[in-house]
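User: I'm new to structure prediction. If I give you an amino acid sequence, what do you actually give back? Let's try with this one:
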Amino acid sequence: MPLFNVNSIVSGLRKNYFSTIYLFIGFLSLYFFTWTGKYLSITYPDKPSLEMGLRVMLRSRHIFILLISLVEIGIGVYIKQCLTRTYLMIQWLAFLCIILSHILLIYAFFFEVELVHIPNTPALHYATYILLGGIILHVLAKFESKD
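Assistant: Good question. You get back a string of structure tokens that encode the predicted 3D arrangement of the chain. For your 147 residues, that looks like this:
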């Protein structure tokens, strides 16, 4: 019996649409992460001459996009869809929180990159808090009894 059975993985994804959605968005976001790296190298070709604060801010925004894509892939690999209505609603709320966080992080990457925004970067701050809330909601959904 092979250790890696593609058919069982595909049939499991059909039963668990949260897993499929998270994995699709996560891998798409991972591709977007590589695209933003190219965008940064084209937009700021002379990185050593940039002011240190701007360099760190650009790099951190870029890494936050990697973070959200890895979180989505991690959730997509391990999530089991809840069966009861209450816990399924908690999973949907967690999903919406993570997607909203994703959108806010992308917004922060493009629109909160000037030094005049420091320390007022509301999109980035809200995105991290909403991401934390989404992860906590997914942890709460794991407490569904499996009777």
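You can read the tokens as a compact description of the fold. Here is one thing that stands out. The chain has one domain: 6-141.
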